[in-house]
Design a protein that fits this description.
By secondary structure, the chain is of the alpha+beta class. It contains three helices and eleven strands; from the N terminus they run H-E-H-E-E-E-E-E-E-E-E-H-E-E. The protein folds into two domains: about 30 residues; about 160 residues, no CATH class. The protein is elongated.
């Protein structure tokens, strides 16, 4: 082997190792997503009677907060940064079932309710999610940027709501069983 071919081989192997290092580093960082789930997000107090009214409104046959669950991410920032004020938030939807779940739109069928005079009232968002169907794969139990199992609600959308105590309700249907799934979160906005 000549000096020139040895030199070129060394450069080629070094370049390949450099590329592989960067690819695997990027992959590792993408799997270690720095998100902060809302731990102390204020929630309104909803009575048992009001919950009963809500279940009557949406239907008793909905599998609620089991097959599909949701959480709120208040920040997509580094864990070392201080939390920002809640002027917008992102909700994340988890599929805990062994079947794909289809949602009627890109917002997971989001409906926002408030309790008013002992009755649930549906609120309208200023900007609604895109009306194309969304499907979540089975056993999706983490924030996944590829599956896009999240949706952000902007400050404009939140400020357009007439109430600060809201219930986010999402709903979808199992692809194989046609079982109805739903989840809700109660939130108090500032």
């Amino acid at each position: 082997m000549t000096k020139k071919s040895f030199f070129l081989s060394t450069i080629g192997i070094s370049a390949l190792l450099f590329i592989l290092y960067n690819v695997f580093s990027a992959y590792y960082i993408s799997k270690q997503q720095n998100t902060r789930l809302a731990e102390l997000l204020p929630t309104p107090v909803v009575s048992t009677d009001e919950d009963t009214l809500f279940y009557a409104l949406i239907g008793q046959e909905v599998n609620m907060n089991n097959g599909v669950t949701m959480g709120v991410v208040t920040s997509m920032q580094s864990m070392s940064e201080p939390p920002q004020p809640l002027n917008h938030f992102t909700y994340v939807v988890f599929n805990n079932t062994s079947e794909a779940i289809k949602f009627p739109d890109q917002g997971f069928g989001l409906e926002i309710y408030t309790i008013e005079n002992s009755a649930w009232k549906l609120l309208q968002l200023q900007y609604v999610p895109i009306a194309s169907e969304k499907e979540l794969p089975p056993k999706l139990k983490r924030l996944d940027f590829d599956a896009e199992n999240f949706l952000s609600l902007s400050e404009e959308n939140l400020n357009s709501l007439p109430s600060h105590n809201i219930r986010l309700y999402i709903h979808g249907v199992g692809e194989k069983t046609n079982k109805r799934y739903g989840a809700y979160l109660d939130i108090s906005l500032p």
